[in-house]
């Protein structure tokens, strides 16, 4: 297993909904995506960073999407599906897995920013194809199987720099 080094090319895949709900429910805070990206890259060569986001009918999340783009994170946008009876769904698992597999041949390491255990087969696939796979997520809401499958697990709860407390809202966008 290779450790992090400056010659490694890395791609980052951020499951925004997973992080958003974990930060909100566990810490009553928002996620500091800038710090997450900095840790994910760790002075290596960033090839691409993707954030998988959901658009609502109101469009209120557009400033957030713009902030991600301004930080060099490409957004993949899916519309929120609303079903009869009020069920709302927007699942990016397959999209993230497909993008990670499609881009894997150009990188040495893949950073998956999600605690969702559904990604264990993806992690196993990437590792079996010679990739270093790192997972970043909030420990309390991360699948133990996903932690075990990864080459490295970064618990976002171990440092409050990954959270934006209410006193730091609204997020200022650097221009």
CATH fold call of the domain at 9-51 and 92-168: Rossmann fold
Q: What is the number of beta strands?
A: 10
Our Rg estimate from Cα atoms comes to 16 Å
Distance between the termini: 39 Å
| Helix percent band | 25-40%
Which architecture of the domain at 9-51 and 92-168 does the CATH hierarchy give at level 2? 3-Layer(aba) Sandwich
Let me know the CATH homologous superfamily of the domain at 9-51 and 92-168. 5'-nuclease
Tell me, briefly, the overall form: globular
Query: What is the strand arrangement across the widest sheet?
Result: 4-3-1-7-8-9
Number of helices: 6
| Major beta sheet summary | 6 strands, parallel
How confident overall, as mean pLDDT? Answer: 91
Percent of residues in β-strands:
25-35%
- Give the structural class: alpha/beta
The topology string of helices and strands comes to: EHEHEHEEEHEHEHEE
Features:
single chain, 175 residues, alpha/beta, Rossmann fold, 6-stranded parallel beta sheet, two-stranded antiparallel sheet, 6 helices, 10 strands
Q: Would you write up a description of this structure?
A:
The protein is α/β, with parallel strands linked by helices and 175 residues long. It has helices spanning 16-27, 33-41, 62-70, 93-103, 120-128, 144-149, and strands at 9-15, 30-31, 45-55, 74-79, 81-82, 88-89, 109-113, 132-137, 152-155, 163-164. A 6-stranded parallel sheet has the order 4-3-1-7-8-9, with helices on both faces. It has a two-stranded antiparallel ribbon with strand order 2-10.
């Amino acid at each position: 297993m290779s450790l992090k080094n400056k010659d490694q090319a890395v791609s980052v895949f951020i499951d925004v909904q997973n992080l958003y709900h974990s930060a909100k429910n566990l810490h009553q805070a928002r996620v500091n995506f800038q710090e997450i990206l900095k840790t994910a890259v760790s002075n290596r060569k960033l090839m691409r960073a993707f954030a998988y986001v959901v658009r609502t009918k109101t469009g209120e999340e557009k400033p957030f999407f713009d902030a991600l783009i301004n930080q060099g994170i490409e957004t993949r946008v899916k519309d929120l599906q609303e079903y009869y009876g009020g069920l709302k769904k927007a699942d990016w698992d397959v999209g993230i897995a497909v993008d990670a597999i499609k881009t894997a041949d150009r990188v040495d390491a893949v950073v998956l920013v999600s605690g969702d255990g559904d990604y264990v087969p993806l992690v196993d696939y990437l590792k079996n194809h010679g990739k270093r796979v790192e997972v970043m997520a909030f420990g309390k809401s991360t699948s133990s199987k996903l932690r075990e499958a990864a080459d490295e697990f970064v618990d976002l709860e171990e440092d409050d720099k990954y959270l934006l407390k209410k006193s730091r809202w609204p997020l200022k966008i650097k221009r």
